[in-house]
Amino acid sequence: MRKAKWAAAAAGVALLVAGCGSGGGTDEGGGGKAPSAGASAPVSGSGTSGGGAPDAAAVKKEIEAAATSAGFARKPGDDVPADLKSCMVSWTADSKKVSDSRKSYDAAVAALAKGGWKETRTVEQPATVVKSLDKSGWSVKATHQGKAGALLIVSFIATETGPICAKAFQEDLAKNKQ
């Protein structure tokens, strides 16, 4: 649970720094409340909210399809806090189940790009790569950190970038401030 809260806090900070009120998303007409995890109104069965942006379930499905097509399996236990489920998706790979995690990571990112996710930023440091991809009011941080035989984490964390979810992230940060 601490890991999920940390991920939510990190995603919230990233949204705040990035100026998360840039538009899009599932928050139009929401009355200042984050949409509930099951409250989206699908458009033509596409998994989008009433505003045309995909909901969390649709984003999770896209990430899972990209990651599994690249050979990853999901590592259990990386749950998002209940009050952020409509604003955030966290998918961590069990990187021990692939022979070349970096090759699989690159393939998963390429599959997301092929699905319409636009790569907006890449940060590379020794043993770490973080790629930001944006699509329809959502931002994914795809991370490959560490190396085989040591601590290795491959994760995909997506956050909805509209103001209602930004408010939900701020409230979560305030609630969990120690």
Task: Explain briefly what this protein structure is.
The chain has helices at residues 2-18, 56-69, 101-114, 163-176; strands at 88-93, 118-125, 128-135, 138-146, 152-160.
Low-confidence stretches: 1-46
Main sheet?
Answer: 5 strands, antiparallel
Mean pLDDT: 78
What's the gyration radius in Å?
16 Å
Strand percentage, roughly?
15-25%
Please tally the β strands and state the result: 5
From the N-terminal CA to the C-terminal CA, the straight-line distance is: 15 Å
Helix percent reads 25-40%
- Oligomerization: single chain
What's the shape?
globular
Order of helices and strands: HHEHEEEEH
From the helix content, strand content and strand pairing, which structural class follows? alpha+beta
Number of helices: 4
The order of strands across the largest sheet is: 1-5-4-3-2
Question: Explain this structure to me?
Answer:
33% of the residues lie in helices and 22% in strands. It has four helices and five strands. The chain has helices spanning 2-18, 56-69, 101-114, 163-176, and strands at residues 88-93, 118-125, 128-135, 138-146, 152-160. Strands 1-5-4-3-2 form a five-stranded antiparallel β-sheet, with helices on both faces. β4 and β5 form a beta hairpin. α1 packs across α4 and α2 (56-69) crosses α3. The longest helix has 17 residues, at 2-18.
List the helices and strands and how they pair.
Layout: H1 2-18, H2 56-69, E1 88-93, H3 101-114, E2 118-125, E3 128-135, E4 138-146, E5 152-160, H4 163-176
Antiparallel strand pairs: 1-5, 2-3, 3-4, 4-5
